[in-house]
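Q: What does the assembled structure look like for these inputs?
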Amino acid sequence: MDKAGIAAVLNDIATLLELKGENPFKIRAYSNGARIIETLGEEEIDRRVREQSLEEVKGIGEALAQKIGELRTTGRLGFHEKLKASLPPGLVELLQIPGVGPKKIRVLHEQLGVDSIAKLRSACQAGTVAALAGFGEKTQAKILEGIANREAYGRRHLWFEAFAVAEPILAGLRGLPPVKRAEHAGSLRRRLETVGDLDFLVATDEPQPIVDWFVRRPEVKEITAHGETKASVRLGSGLQADLRLVPPEQFVFALHHFTGSKDHNVQMRGRALERGLSLSEWGLVPAEGEGTAREKAEKLGRKTTVKNEAQLFRALGLAFIPPELREGQGEIEAAEKGGLPVLIEEADIRGVFHNHTTESDGHNTLEEMTRAAEELGLDYLGIADHSKSSFQARGLDEARLAAQVAAIGKLNASGRFRTHVFAGTECDILPDGRLDFTDDVLRTLDYVVAAVHSAFKQDRASQTQRIIRAIENPHVTMLAHPTGRLLLGRPGYEVDMDKIVDAAIANGVIIELNASPWRLDLDWRHWRRAAGRGLLCSINPDAHSTAQLAYFRAGVAAARKGWLTKDDVLTTRPLAAVKKHLAARRG
Ligand code: DGT
Ligand code: CA
Ligand code: CA
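A:
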């Protein structure tokens, strides 16, 4: 078992022991052990298990060393399994309800037989929780509210929407006089496709007025924590936001720490230790010597020479790692070797493909879409309305498509807009992999986006074969949203993405990065390897209105997470080069 797995088991043991009411020192030994194991290298763990020298690591006692050894060599731990079996499985879940800690859970379980969230809700509704010693009406009401909130707010939020909520808050923070610096952190700054909560970080010597400003924002629905250097609130949208305030000299370290990801941080701390340094939210200090990392950092205080993140990375022999890449997926190795990509930027985008008009299910006309694209400064706009099989989206038949092609030709010839319009189609891939239009029809278009909109439930092999058949059609320029997933909605259909990427490369077909914030499909986790093998990307907003053309920004964020450079993306190329690419494709 790898160290992340071992740490997870140790943390789980700590929680289970807490539920059993075990001695706090014993509990802390396990949670400390989990933290320590994450800072060790995998090779070091192997060596120490072999040499039975884990106990020499500070904070790991004999009992813990034996358990880590068992997990490492067998992947299981008898002690953990017995402990789990001794508690009803629903008890652990109860920990997720705010205001319900291990102590209360024990009482609820012993006195009322509560061992699940559903039973806890019934007990509250029946009023029996309020009657317990140490609970009362207020606690009971709070638990019920917590259960209701968990259902309403327990979900994650789309990055694009969360970012729009966060921007004015950040601007507001930056405008407050005592604020020296303010940034987003967490998954929002890393531009993960969904975020759990918003994280804000502020550098200041005078935290109180800033905390007060934050909790009094009009969009705040509930204050969940209100401290001197920290606050948490629930916003109207159900989104939770955390604010942390630190002294200016600590800002860079806190920013790096609270940006995460956790995996990235664990690797960075390990790297610091190899250099005799201890990296934490407080600072970068010598690992040896008296005192905690925090005490040492506070002693160094304003003398720290690290003033920005670039200097923090440099202090560990690394090039600056953009937040989007901080997912613990090889970015540190790349930064060490000077192998980080020069990531694509919003300003690199010259045009957008795969957009809809009122001819199918869009909300704006061809002219309105073109004007909006021009206002965004785009050199070209690709229209691709639905094809006839997508009747629910008012898909175009051959005659309406021909009329649209003529209208686009006329608009381009009129010279009314600086933005060139490409005529295309979002052509359905039929269940057997044939396309919705014949080759003779497809030939009349500038480009073709092939898309699955039906028969999602085919088995993996047939679905893969179906899509590959479409890719092999010489008229297909790009494949749309290759898994069909809707974030927070439905998972994608089953496909062998490696095979699809191979087929796209072999046939010179582009795969889109559908930039709709609900899709972001193909997922960023695939792009680094796919582009490395030669796959060309197109960042397509799939806009159904003029406002949605701006979705390309969410696409650029996802592309950056996928390590993509300007050269990996068709839509960074100038109009002439794109015309040439499309013409060559049509042969
Ligand atoms: P989210 O909010 O679930 O989308 O993900 P993050 O990455 O924003 O996580 P969050 O808000 O829990 O914490 C922000 C960052 O703080 C996280 O990326 C790494 C760092 N961090 C510091 N201490 C901890 C810790 O004890 N646990 C976790 N999970 N993260 C920590
Ligand atoms: Ca967060
Ligand atoms: Ca947070």
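The longest helix spans residues 3-20.
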